[in-house]
Every structure is written in structure tokens, then in C-alpha cells.
Amino acid sequence: MKYRQDIDGLRAVAVLAVLLFHLDPGYLNAGYLGVDIFFVISGYLITRIVYTELMNRKYSVTNFYVRRSKRILPPLYFMAVVTLIAGYVILLPNDFYKTGIAVLGAILFASNMQFALRTGDYFSSDSSEWPMLHTWSLSVEEQYYFVLPIALIIIIRFLKVNLIATMCVVAFASFALAEFMSAKSNLAGLSYYFLLTRMGELLVGSILAILHAKGTLEKSNSDLVAAIATAILIATLVFFDKQFAFPGFSALLACIPIALLIHCENTWVNRLLENKVIVWIGLLSYSLYLFHWPVLAFARYILNTTEGYLHLPLGVQAICLVLIFLLSIISYYAVERPLRKLKVGGIKALILYFLIPSGALALLALGVVVNKGLPQRLSTDTIDTGLQFSHIDKKQCPSLVNIGCVGGDKASGKEILFYGNSHAEHYFEMISLLAKDSDMSVKLYAAGGCGLKKKSTKCASTRSAYAEALQQGTEISILAFRWDSDFRDDEFLTELDELIKQAQTGSARVIVLAQPPLLNFNPPKIENCRRLGISCPKPASDVDDLYPTYNDSIKLRVTALGAEFFDPFDSIEDTTQLYEDDKLLYSDMDHLSVYGGRWLYENLAARESTPLTSN
Fold first, then answer.
1. Are 287 and 328 in contact (CB under 8 A)?
2. What's the rounded Cα separation, in Å, for the pair 441 and 339?
């Protein structure tokens, strides 16, 4: 296939659009559509190669994946290793743990689904600090590369139906599915990352490639067509708003102009795209895409100490740009280009390019995951960061879903059932110590992210396990959730009423715990800045204005039903205290650390005012 410099120029447009948007969304409103540009280009180039080889009876599965491995894997693995090294230095344990999982997802070409299952979507503020987020698009492309050759072989050799018509129907179905899913709030996140909802964009390029390969459609030399396509593309990138349902048919506003520009040859736009600087950026585009996001994500991670998206200062943006281009140049000239040209093929190439490096990288990432983000790397003689940066002691309760984790006096016949979500987990240390003093055991039934309205499998199974234990009867049932986001929500309050009534059927006492003060900043991020030798500001007001309104409101609801309400912070003089003996008391803006749980226990034990003794 003849090399076209202008297609590398289009790659430059795509990567610069993405880079500008990620540097600051204000620079290019819809720069994220650069990914869709990449999809059309990839669909065109790969389909042209595969289709031509199939028609000439020269297609080889091994050769195809050897070429893909040489092109894609070395820079990807290089970026992943650099990200893990940087994460070891920069990230707090839980975030480093999540990065290890993301690296495993990238190795398996499944990171798109892994990110789809996380809380929040591509545009949520916390996702701007996930250093491997951008690998979702690579996973979509790789999944397409697995599907495309098989689909073409089946259609051409066995079904023998009209190929273009079939691909058009599949593309339409993909766009329609994306449109439907993007309009549903509970499916929008999945829609953004899902192969079936993105396949239409790749198929736009694939359909054009087959039309060109068959000679059905002659390339255009029209300056007018190229100018119209360029105008539509620029208007889309500048004015398209991410508030529209996306992906869906709206993605065609980026896909069609790119397809038209690929279709054009020898126009003034093509000549402009063949500019040496633009082509050079296009050649760097893959490495630029790989490295731009981790650099920006790490910068935001370090500097963002509050909730929400951080607009990087101009000076920091400049430093990031220099670092992005430096890493990309190293990646391209030292890794991507030489390893792609290395004369090795067949099974040997797949072993050298995929099996060995992916196995080594997987072991490295697994080490991070199994060791829960290696908290010991940040520990000192007096501070265990596994307790400082976590809201629950993972040595005691290692599961992500805690069903029946036991604390207190484990030999006692008197049992406390403790049910909730992460707000139960962060009080577990306090309750366990208090239960031990009272010669009682405590069983935890909690799953992070499971608010009272959540009906996922994880949440339902935790609730079911608690209900089953409740049927056996218990001395005390303790309930703890986050109140500030839902205390005015009628559906939430109705669920709370039902939960309390259910607990009262099997418990002598039912106690609901107050939420700690909601902070306006993230204490571990402040601590991380201090650890890295960087001065990070925090808001003038430490505590959110809603505190203690949400607790007061829930208290009225709880006591009206005959249950007890207990606020551990009633015994604390300074509710904004962050440290005790240099140990951080909060693991984030609304969760105590394990040290914070012990600190609360010590205050309560000294005052003899505990939820287990008050009635």
C-alpha cells in the first residue's frame, strides 16, 4: 500500500486536538474527537491491508498480528513501565493499586471495559487523574483488529453477501446502539468505551478502504470537497459540546470529514498536511498519544487537593508539554521505530514482542495489585501508610466486599452486626475497639459505593448477607452511610426507614452513626504534596457548609423511628483536626483513616461516651 504523507498529517491533527483538549478543555471544545479521527484512520489503513491480502490470497493471521505487535506493543509497554515507575514515586497506595489493575487491563486489551466499570465516566473530574485512562481507545482498536479479519473472511468466503451493504448495516446499528446507550444515564459510561458502540467509527474508514481497493470509488482531486470537509471538521472540533449525547450519530460530524480528506488526493489540504513539521508530528503521534495523558494525569494528581477538575497553571502546562515531547521523541526513536523495523517474524516475533514483555509487565503490575499499591514504600518508623492512607485495615479485612469480617472480642458470644458502605468500613476500627472493651464481637457487612439506592449485585449480596445474619438475632445493629449527598432525597430516606425497621426486627438496639465532617480538601493529597516537597494550597474553609446539617436532619428521622443516633465527633473539641502524633486522621475528604478510627476510639473511651454504652 502506497505511503501517504497526508494521512500522517491527519494523525497529527488528531493527536494535537486530543493534546489541546487534555491540556485544558478551554483550548479546543471538542478536542477529544481526535480519538474518533484516529478510529477512522485506523479502520481505513487496516482494512485496506487485510482486504487486499484476502483478495490476493496472501492473508496470514501470523503475519498480520506480527505487524500489529511490532507497531503497537513496544511503545505501549514502554509507556506502561514508565507510568508504573512514576506511580511508585508519586501515587498514594490505593491509586497505585488501581494503576496496577489498569496496566493489566491494557496488557489484555480490555482496559476499555475496565474503565467502563469504574465509578465515573471519561469526563468525570476524578478520571482526569487516572494515568492509564487513555489506553481505552487502544483496547477498542485491538478488539476491532481481532474481529475485522474474521468478519471479512466469513462474509467474503462463506456468506458471499454484498460486503459494502453488510458493513453499512453494521455501522448504522453501531451508531444507533451508541445513540440509545448514550441517552441512558446508567449506560452512558459503557457507551463511551464499548467496542460495539465505537465500531461504526472504525467502519467508516473500513468502508472507504474497500471502496478504494475495489476501484468502486475513485479518489477525488476536488479542492472544494477538501475545503468543505476541513471546514466541517474545524467547526466540529471548536463548537461541538460534550453535553450532547455522545457517542452516537453525532460522531459522524468528525468521521465523515476525515473520510473525505482521506478520499482526497493532491488538493491544497493534502499538500498542507504533507508539511514536514506536520508529518513529523504525525509520525510521533502514537508515542505522543501514549505519553501525553500520564504526564498530565500525574501533574493534576499532584497539584489537585480538592474535588473537581484542576485547570493546570500555564507554567505547569509548559513543563508538561516539554516532558511529553521529550518522552515521545525517546519512545519513537529509541523504541517504536527500531523495534518495528527489526527483521524478525513468525511465532518468534510474537514471543519476543508479546509473550515475554507482556508476561514480565504483567508480573510487575500484579506485584503492585497483590501488595495493594505497596503502602510500605511510604511508611516510616512511626507511621504505617497502610493505616494512614486507607479507611479500613486491609490486613484485618482484605476483601473489596466485606461480608462477615470479624472484629472486637472474637471469642465473645455477644455479637454486633455492622452494616453499611465505605462509611461503615471507616468506623470499623473504632467499633471493633469499643466492642472489645465491652466483651463483644462485631461482624462487618459493607461494600464501598453501595448507597441505599444502589441495587447492583455487589450491593444486593451485601444487604442479603446482613439480612440473613439479622434473622439469627443480635444484641446491636449499627448502620453507617454517607448522608450529605442524600439527606434531602425522598427515595433515599424511604430506603433508610425500611432499613431501620428491618434492623429492629432482629436487634435489641439499632444505632445509626453520624457522618464525619465533610472536608473541602483532600488531606492525603496535602500530605502527598508535603512528601514530594511541593507546596499545595488548600481552601480557606476546611469544612463544607453542609456540616452538621446533614447529621441533624438524619438524626430527626432516625429517632422518630425509635432508633438511636450517635455522633462520635460530639466528643471532639476540634472537628477540623487532621493529625494526631503526625498520623493523618482522614483517608480522603469524607472518610477517616484507620488512625482516625483509633483516635476517635481513644477520645470516646476517655469520656466513657460510646455508642455501645449509651442508650
1. yes
2. 60
pLDDT at 532 over 80: yes
Task: Give the Cβ contact number of residue 236 at 10 Å.
Answer: 21
Residue 161 Cα to chain centre, angstroms: 40
Name which of 524, 386, 587, 521 is nearest 90 in CA terms.
524
- In the three-class reduction of DSSP (H, G, I as helix; E, B as strand; rest coil), residue 451 is classed as coil
Map grid coordinates 440473613 to a residue: 468
Residue tagged 489493575 (cell numbers): 101
DSSP H helical ranges for 471-513:
490-506
The domain locations on the chain are 5-370, 385-607
Mean pLDDT over the full length of the chain? 93
Q: What CA–CA distance (Å, rounded) separates 290 from 121?
A: 20
pLDDT value, residue 502: 96
Q: Does residue 553 register a pLDDT over 70?
A: yes
How does pLDDT run across 124-163, given as a tens digit for each residue? 667 899 999 999 999 999 999 999 999 999 999 888 889 9
| Best CA proximity match to 259, nearest among 313, 203, 188, 308 | 203
Residue 528 has pLDDT above 90, yes or no: yes
What integer is the mean pLDDT of 481-498?
Answer: 95
- The three state secondary structure string of 233-296 is HHHHHHHCCCCCCCCCHHHHHHHHHHHHHHHECCCHHHHHHCCHHHHHHHHHHHHHHHHHHHHH
What pTM, to 2 d.p., does this model score? 0.90
| pLDDT number for residue 609 | 66
| DSSP SS3 for 566 | strand
Q: What are phi and psi of 98, to 5 degrees?
A: -65, -35
296 phi/psi in degrees, rounded to 5 = -70, -40
> What is the DSSP pairing of strand 415-420 with strand 441-447?
parallel
Give dist(CA 532, CA 469) in Å, integer: 46
Question: How confident is the model over 240-254, as pLDDT tens digits?
Answer: 976 677 899 999 999
Burial of 455 (0-12, 13-18, 19+ CB in 10 A): exposed
Mean pLDDT of 418-436: 96
Q: Where are the alpha helices (DSSP H) in 426-456?
A: 428-437
Tell me the pLDDT tens digit for each residue of 300-339: 999 999 888 889 999 999 999 999 999 999 999 999 999 9
**CATH level 3 topology of 385-607:** Rossmann fold (3.40.50)
- Name every residue whose Cβ is closer than 8 Å to that of residue 50 and which is 6 or more positions away in sequence: 59, 64, 148, 149, 152
Spatial contact of 50 and 152, defined as CB atoms under 8 Å apart: yes
Secondary structure (H, E, C), 376-433:
HHHCCCCCCHHHHCCCCCCCCCCCCEEEEEEEECCCCCCEEEEEECHHHHCCHHHHHH
